[in-house]
Amino acid sequence: MPDDPVTTIVLFHVPPESSAAFVAAWAESNAFMSAQPGLVGGTLFRSASDAADPQFVNVATWTSQAALDQARARHAEHLAEQGIDQREVWAKLGVTVSPASYHVEVRYCGPDGNGE
Question: What confidence score (pLDDT) does residue 50 get?
Fold first, then answer.
């Protein structure tokens, strides 16, 4: 399993008044992460309801946990070189983050899906 693809799912609890600033900050981080080796692809989801919590969910697939870990380390170095503390940025916006990584257990599709 160490070399298997891994999907990271990150829940972002974002106060409504910080949504625009959060998306802008996330987009900056995503620009860096999207250029990292091992990223297969991903999507940032926004809740269909303003009352939902978490308001944002990022789902990204990486070729392996090692690729994800290396990308995160490079991102931390990149931010440190710029004098940016990502945790501090999120705290100022009132954002809390809950990340986790997963391996596929079961794939499924409905009658309108193609099975991929």
Answer: 83
Residue 89 domain flag: yes
* CATH code of the domain covering residue 96: 3.30.70.100
Q: Is residue 41 part of a domain?
A: yes
Q: What is the pLDDT of residue 112?
A: 85
- Domains contained in the chain, number: 1
- 88 pLDDT band (50/70/90 cuts)? very high
* Torsion-angle region of 50 (φ positive above 0: left; ψ -120 to 50: alpha; else: beta): alpha
Q: Residue 1: its pLDDT value, please?
A: 55
> Distance of alpha carbon 38 from its chain centroid, rounded?
14
**Domain interval for residue 33:** 24-102
Residues 6 or more apart whose CB falls under 8 angstroms from that of 50 comprise 16
